[in-house]
Design goal:
Elements: H1 4-15, H2 28-42, H3 47-61, E1 76-80, E2 83-86, E3 92-95, E4 98-101, E5 107-108, E6 114-115, E7 122-124
Antiparallel strand pairs: 1-2, 2-3, 3-4, 4-7, 5-6
Length: 133
């Protein structure tokens, strides 16, 4: 039978055509989303806790840290001679003692498309909340 949320999600995904074989990923995106909705709906969240859980899940699913980066030595992997990449947030690098976020500025086109470029780099000081961008 399912919950009201499941019924709503199924109808919206159906309207968007995301269960059809000719849709993105051969209909698998709709099915995968429904599996997530089913798990979420069984958790029994109220409106407030639902928002918190969604926000936390989204950050983690995007490989974003949920606490600020510290800049401590154990957060870094050397990826090239003298170039270090943050283990907790792959878009943050450090070289010659200076840290930077290669996606610190995200540009938006008039049509809503988003992109980054060489001009996206911003300096980072620690603690750094990478998930706030």
């Amino acid at each position: 039978m399912g919950t009201a949320l499941e019924a709503f999600a199924r109808e919206e995904l159906k309207r968007a055509g995301l269960f059809r074989k000719e849709s993105d990923y051969g209909g698998m995106l709709g099915a995968a989303t429904m599996r997530l909705i089913k798990v979420f709906s069984k958790e029994g969240h109220s409106g407030y806790s639902a928002g918190m859980a969604i926000s936390l899940f989204e950050k983690l699913a995007r490989y974003l840290p949920i606490t600020p980066l510290t800049g401590d030595d154990d957060e870094w992997n050397e990826v090239a001679q003298g170039v270090f990449q943050n283990r907790r947030c792959s878009r943050v690098f450090k070289e010659a003692g200076s840290a930077y976020d290669i996606e610190g500025i995200v540009f938006r086109e008039a049509n809503g498309d988003r992109y980054t470029s060489g001009e996206s780099r911003v300096s980072v000081t620690f603690p750094y909340d990478a998930a706030s961008i």
